[in-house]
Amino acid sequence: MKAFIFDLDGVITDTAEYHYLAWKALGEDLGIPFDRAFNETLKGVSRTESLERILRLGGRENDFSAEEKELLAIKKNEHYVSFISKITDADILPGIEVFLKELKEAGYKIGMASASKNAQTVTSQLGLLEAFDHIVDAATVIHSKPHPEVFLKAAEALRVDPKECVGIEDAVAGITAIHEAGMFAVGIGDPNVLTEADIVFENTARLTLEKLLVRI
User: Fold this and answer.
1) Which of 44, 15, 8 is CA-nearest to residue 129?
2) Which residues sit in the known binding site?
3) Annotated binding residues for substrate, as ranges?
4) Does the model's pTM come out above 0.70?
5) What residues does CATH 3.40.50.1000 cover in the chain?
6) Contacts of 216 (CB under 8 A, 6+ apart)
7) Lowest-pLDDT range, 24-28, 77-81, 155-159, 195-199?
8) Where does CATH 1.10.150.240 sit in the chain?
9) pLDDT tens, 167-200?
């Protein structure tokens, strides 16, 4: 293996709560309340698809034009940006800084493949921009996860064959995208949920290069 490609949300930092609060605020504006269980179905998918799922939940999928839906997506992002403006390096998930340092010292290339259009901003606020050789976010791809495009673009930017890449994800859609890209898939979370991953760590604190190299 020559490169490691990370998802952002739920792997580098946990912005899932901010996404939830932002979508919840938009849902309330539209009269479509939903709970955390439904929010789980929005993880790892694009902003556009998340909006469609919320509208379907409320039976309002046909109430808005494409232009109006775009404005709703922008409004959600405005909610989200206001929440993430407070993110600092204290929000980096346990063990990630050490793991990134391990990879860098071992000579691996490091990339990011995020479904967030705010990946650059969040990574900068975390103080981790220099840790990544390249970041691909939702603003630069056509297809969202589980399509492999974002991971394939990251591998291309790193000039590494996808078969020589390890993808790290916390969402089922992300694991599917990694495998579709032909990469080794590492899951972060519940092994009963991330059943398609090649190896699963319950949390980032357990993620180490030594443990991974035994399995790859």
Assistant:
1) 8
2) 7-9, 23, 42-47, 50, 76, 114-118, 145, 169-170
3) 7-9, 23, 42-47, 50, 76, 114-118, 145
4) yes
5) 3-13+89-215
6) 1, 166, 184
7) 77-81
8) 16-84
9) 999 999 999 999 999 999 999 999 999 999 999 9
User: Which pLDDT value is given to residue 147?
Assistant: 95
- Going 100 to 90 to 168 to 73, the CA torsion angle's sign is negative
User: 3-13+89-215 — its CATH code?
Assistant: 3.40.50.1000
Token pair, residue 33, equals 């309340």
CB count in 10 Å sphere of residue 184: 21
Burial class from Cβ neighbours inside 10 Å (0-12, 13-18, 19+) for residue 126 reads buried
Catalytic residues: 7, 9
Per-residue pLDDT at 159 = 98
Binding positions for Mg(2+): 7, 9, 169-170
Domain spanning 16-84, CATH class? mainly alpha
Tell me the two tokens of residue 177: 């995208």
